[in-house]
Amino acid sequence: MIQFRFFFFVLGGIFIFTQMAQATTSQQELTALKEQLKLLMQRIETLEKNQKASQGGLSEPQKPIAKVSDLPKPPVPLQVVSGNNKVQLALSGQVNRFVSFDDNGKNSQVSHKDNSFSSTRLNFTGRGALNDETTVSGVVEVEIRSDPSLTRDIGTASDASSSVFLRERRLEAIFDHKRYGKLWLGQGPMASDSTSEVDYSGTDVITSGSEIQDQAGGVKFFNKRTKQKDARTIATVYDNYGQGFRQDRVRYDTPNFKGFVFGASHATRDIVDASLKYAGEVGKTKFGAAVAVAKNPFSGSTRKGWEQYNGSASVLFQNGISFMGAVGQRKFKDKGRDPGKYWYGKVGYQFNYFEIGKTAFAIDYAWSKAIADDTSFTLADFKVINTERFNSYGLVAVQSLDSVATEVYAAARTHQLKRRGDWFHKILSFVAGVRVKF
Q1: CA 361 to chain centre
Q2: How many Å is the Cα radius of gyration of the chain?
Q3: Higher pLDDT residue, 342 or 9?
Q4: What are the start-end ranges of the E strands in 70-107?
Q5: What's the pLDDT at 57?
Q6: pLDDT digits (tens, 9 = 90+) for 230-239
Q7: Alpha-carbon gap, residue 437 to 119, rounded angstroms
Q8: How many C-beta atoms lie closer than 10 Å to residue 35's C-beta?
């Protein structure tokens, strides 16, 4: 700025000298020139002050970070652009992985698995408004499972990259009307899906309601009598009759009426179901419940199908304590086959002690009878299955990291199978993992 000052001084001096040299220059013109020079000097001083202020701001030390809220906020994310400008496109998904230690009483193994409770997946949803009351959506959701916990046994090798592929979860069109309800067409959840999993414990990332079999579902029981692995896995001797029930179907749900929603659906091979769900609050106490009935008339070329009844309920009090329960029964039409039954209970506690997010703990118990099923089973198999009993105890902990849409979790669980004439070692399973949503 010193150079600018000197330049303007010289320029102004030359200009004044030239004007004074002229014989015709009047005193009034000289006065006007002096005023212009004064105004020019004031502008130069203003520029110098602004430059000093700018330099001072750049050199000012950054404020130290003392807590999470001091961290800089991420910029607003870019929107996903649809190929059709009439539809709003949303992209979402998650990665959910854990490390597990499993012990069947004879062998043990540390494994790295995809969490089958809530698998790694991608979701594309396009939505457009037909009018003020009606929206039309299209959903494509796939999962990418490498070593899924539901099927991985002790001693098995990890999935080769060539065997990991996209699996369908939802491929559907949805018409949603504010007054007339919602119509679903395509591959997706039936009306009875998740009716055994109404759960306010905050631990669904590793125990989704009464769905406890996915933690180590592929591990086989070790038979003490035969000294070898049995055909039964955890996932074959326990089922909560309400999870993962997705089909190619048509489904209808009524509008929400004071917390109640009724739904019904029909799938290929004449599978039908219906459900009634409720969610509401009394004061600061949260309550939810669901009941469902389903029927499958063709469960195999030599099988006669089944009818199923199930339900669940959960309550969350203001102090963070929650209770959850579920029960279900599947009546088989095959001669000599007893009904499959289960019941489940959970007690949870959640609190916000840490600034990073909610902390949740839960303990649970599951029991089942005569659950194992396969389309190839015969009367001889039924006589064995009818004597099978299973139970499981679990302890879980989940810590939310709200600022990064992440949950870290750990769980420990025991599994016990009993059968007339056979004795089995307990299966112990310990896992620790993380789910990152995006």
Answers
A1: 18
A2: 34
A3: 342
A4: 88-103
A5: 43
A6: 999 999 999 9
A7: 11
A8: 9
Going by pLDDT thresholds of 50, 70 and 90, the confidence category of residue 22 is very low
The separation between CA 430 and the C-alpha centre of its own chain, rounded to angstroms, equals: 21
Given a contact cutoff of 8 angstroms between Cβ atoms, the answer to whether 304 and 282 are in contact is no
pLDDT of residue 75: 59
Cβ-Cβ contacts under 8 Å for 260 (sequence gap 6 or more): 276, 277, 278
DSSP 8-class letter at 259:
T
For 263-294, b/e burial (b = at least 16 CB within 10 A) is bbbebeeebbbbbbbbbeeeeeebbbbbbbbb
Helices (H), 75-180: none
Where helices occur in 279-390 by DSSP H, the ranges are 379-385
Q: Quote the CA–CA distance of 136 and 281 in Å, as a whole number.
A: 30
Residue the block writes with tokens 């009090």: 317
416: its two tokens: 């016990």
Half-sphere exposure of residue 423: CA atoms within 13 angstroms, side-chain side: 3
DSSP lists the bridge partners of residue 295 as 272, 307
Closest by CA to 243, choosing from 312, 193, 203, is: 193
**C-alpha to C-alpha distance for 342 and 364, rounded to whole angstroms:** 14
- Token pair belonging to 379: 């009367």
With H, G, I as helix, E, B as strand and everything else as coil, classify residue 269.
helix
* Listed residue (192, 219, 408) closest to 296, CA to CA: 192
Query: Other C-beta atoms within 10 Å of 63: how many?
Result: 7
CA distance 257 to 263: 12
- Specify whether the CB–CB gap between 370 and 386 falls below 8 A: yes
Residue 320's pLDDT is what?
97
CA–CA separation, 334 and 371 (whole Å): 14
pLDDT digits 0-9 by tens, 351-360:
999 999 999 9
pLDDT digits (tens, 9 = 90+) for 68-100: 555 555 555 556 677 778 889 999 999 999 999
Q: Cα(291)–Cα(195) distance, rounded to whole angstroms?
A: 6
Whole-angstrom distance, CA of residue 121 vs CA of residue 63: 39
Q: How far is C-alpha 38 from the geometric centre of its chain's CA atoms?
A: 69
The mean pLDDT of 181-210, rounded to a whole number, is 96
Structure-block tokens of residue 23? 């014989």
What is the C-alpha separation between 27 and 194, in angstroms, rounded? Answer: 96
